[in-house]
Amino acid sequence: MxxxxxxxxxxxxxxxxxxxxxxNKRSSGKIAFLQLRDGSGFIQAVVAKxxxxxxxxEQSKNITQETSLYVTGKVVEDSRxxxxxxxxxxxxxxxxxxxxxxxxPKEHGTEFLMDHRHLWLRSxxxxxxxxxxxxxxxxxxxxxxxxxxxxxxPPILTGASAEGTTELFHTKYxxxxxxxxxxxxxxLEAAAMAxxxxxxxxxxxxAEKSKTRRHLIEFWMIEPEMAFMDHxxxxxxxxxxxxxxxxxxxxxxxxxLETLERDTTQLEKIKAPxxxxxxxxxINYLNEQGYDDIKxxxxxxxxxxxAIAEAYDKPxxxxxxxxxIKSFYMKPDPDNPDVALCADxxxxxxxxxxxxxxxxxxxYELMAKRYNEHELDxxxxxxxxxxxxxxxxxxxxxxxxxxxxxxxxxxxxxxxETIPFPxxxxxxxx
Amino acid sequence: MxxxxxxxxxxxxxxxxxxxxxxNKRSSGKIAFLQLRDGSGFIQAVVAKxxxxxxxxEQSKNITQETSLYVTGKVVEDSRxxxxxxxxxxxxxxxxxxxxxxxxPKEHGTEFLMDHRHLWLRSxxxxxxxxxxxxxxxxxxxxxxxxxxxxxxPPILTGASAEGTTELFHTKYxxxxxxxxxxxxxxLEAAAMAxxxxxxxxxxxxAEKSKTRRHLIEFWMIEPEMAFMDHxxxxxxxxxxxxxxxxxxxxxxxxxLETLERDTTQLEKIKAPxxxxxxxxxINYLNEQGYDDIKxxxxxxxxxxxAIAEAYDKPxxxxxxxxxIKSFYMKPDPDNPDVALCADxxxxxxxxxxxxxxxxxxxYELMAKRYNEHELDxxxxxxxxxxxxxxxxxxxxxxxxxxxxxxxxxxxxxxxETIPFPxxxxxxxx
Lengths: 430, 430
Ligand SMILES: [Mg+2]
Ligand SMILES: [Mg+2]
Prior knowledge:
The structure is a homodimer.
Chain A: E1 15-28, E2 31-37, E3 42-48, H1 54-61, E4 68-77, E5 85-96, H2 110-115, H3 117-120, H4 124-146, E6 150-151, E7 157-158, E8 170-173, E9 176-180, H5 185-195, E10 197-205, E11 218-227, H6 231-252, H7 254-259, H8 264-268, E12 276-278, H9 279-288, H10 302-309, E13 316-319, E14 332-333, E15 336-340, E16 342-347, E17 352-359, H11 364-373, H12 382-386, E18 395-401, H13 402-410
Parallel strand pairs in A: 3-5, 6-10, 12-13
Antiparallel strand pairs in A: 1-2, 1-4, 2-3, 4-5, 7-9, 8-9, 10-11, 11-18, 13-16, 14-15, 16-17, 17-18
Helix pairs in contact in A: 4-6, 4-13
């Protein structure tokens, strides 16, 4: 019976065959312990000299790291292993012997590991991160499908950008100039007017020469956009969504969080509602805490975000930023038009901003005024303005950065490990 | 009580308020029928002169197309409508009056509609197509999650391509040259060696100057890749996947398929297993049918694919293509190395190829030979070759084109209507 490591629990005391790779091994005189991995999980296979042919036992002691195998054995319970089972081996068949696998259990430098990313992904920690990333994606779809959202895929290639082209990748689109999208939001607003509630999940690109542990050149965003939803309702949706994802990971990635040595008590606290603080109060708080490098009208840097986050044990919404430092399409607060009906969601534990969102301007005259101020002329922008002409409605939306969310939930230091093949300044390989 | 059209069934005989747009209307002396849409669905709202104020009745008779509204009324069953309910209106509040909405119920030319794609999406047919697209995506995630696959996002920006750069979009990646991905497959093979079973769902790009009803410049692909899976097992997975998606759409998109006037009897037949015909038999069949423009060694054109598909009422796998006309990484058939362990899946009713897949070469020596033949030298290709060095295993994968699948299942003529904002030759707007 062929099965996978994740499914051995269905075959207790049965003999199964698993296609796998040798992750690690140790042996003493009459017994060899093979740590196997098959992508679905990790399991210990015990080869007792008495239980196999002499040839299989000798071979087992000498299997090299990452050699591919078919291993046959009986599934038995083992309360000491995270999986809860081990394999009592009756046969081992080598598929292909791996010689001199470059990533050994010893320490390697970051550049070396990044150059070998195609192999590094096989390590226990990277495997766990990718499984958590997958669970975040899976639960995102589940959440938005259950809330009646329609997945909409906005275009990646666009003819113009409302927010400048300096940080955009350029390409020739036959005879025209095109840019890689930084956000699908404008398109998602059009789609929300057709489909009510929509969300995208796709790659975005920022040609930014920054080299911090929070930045990727190519990263994935989840961008929901909701017709007939105001700012407050959007914040509620955001906190429910983030809490849903965190609780899904806690429930479905127990082994992976253990592998990552993640402090899950921090994650268990992540339930709606989340605290809210206005931008103005946040500035005052920072000044009181001794940060004299920031004043009303400035945007937060990473240290400021961390200082604010430290005051809470949940993600915190910073709301009502000055209109001047936010995007042109954000709706001014009717009670105080100097600030916008917007919020950034700052993750706990120093992971920074994971969501930016706002209610959108729905008034045609005000949007036309913004067009003038930002010199958004020409036909490339006409269609977006038209959304305020033909049945404009209150609407809100937000964007969640997948990789920053993975970094936070897995508790890892650097965002480069949160995506299978990171694109960084000076890194386009593998 | 605020609700959406999709949720009125939960509020029968209750009074609800719906945020919506006027899709269409007709009125006689004492009654106005408002066709409302809110993205979640379409509903008829009946405004009886006797049931509302004189002001609301007069206003209702004069509401213009695509005006945004809050409509309050009682939900009553109505067996004549596809939804099964209508609204007996007690109040109507106009949010924003739409004047001279450009897309009227009369006929418009394709270029006009494409120029107004941001508004055209609101039409009943386009709305239905997007909902079916969403259900295909939703059920795809459901299927692969249930089968133990991990979603992996391969990079879009890549430094080199194993299959030439003439049909790739180019960009400068700081000081390097980069290209937009046509397929994540090579990366997915690396990921499958780490995670066992993986799938991607993302945009791909082809800078091809073709202008057929089957081609988009930017399109979305689902690419599963499976370690320890041979060609035959992959075909079984493919037919189960496609059948699952079709049956999910039939179950969850009844109203939309009715709107699209789709012949659902054709879709009900789509259950595993699917027929298989070898490339060689397909060539013979075509020659027998009088196609003298194709011989062994040629690739199929659209008319050939259609002719083959017409012999079946399910999708058909054409298997074992000549190695020469397929990709360098496809595994030759051990029984006949002139042909590959590969298959294209051809949709019924003339919709053409929706899947291409194969078992991959897992032998290092053979892959090294292919590298020589295809002049894949330099470090950019080294990592992919290494996968055959460090624990190579039998593995297979395939790619399904989302938009062609949407076209087939919705039964629409042209692929440009299957994606929210199509990118075509000479079309980068809106
Ligand atoms: Mg910020
Ligand atoms: Mg083909």
